[in-house]
Design goal:
Layout: H1 7-10, H2 19-35, H3 40-64, H4 69-83
């Protein structure tokens, strides 16, 4: 059996910079799920429940950054300038 973590499952853009961070969060929550359940099936189900909402939000935010034209400039480049 396999559990997929980080960028492999969250599909955020590589320049979004959250792949390693989300993988570390995934590992921590998976560890807690394994420790608090009796089987790997239960652990992966609990893990999925706990990570689903945040993972969905990361993917949606990442996809919004690729808007074409002027809208793309304002949704991607301007926040980078403001944050720096």
């Amino acid at each position: 059996r396999t559990v997929i973590l980080g960028d492999a499952i969250h599909t955020v853009k590589p320049y979004f910079g959250l792949g390693a961070n989300s993988a570390l969060q995934d590992v921590q929550i998976l560890k807690q799920s394994i420790e608090s359940t009796n089987t790997m099936k239960e652990a992966t189900h609990l893990f999925s429940q706990q990570r689903a909402a945040e993972s969905k939000a990361l993917v949606e935010i990442s996809r919004e950054l690729d808007r074409p034209g002027l809208l793309g400039v304002f949704t991607f480049i301007v926040p980078l300038i403001v944050d720096s």
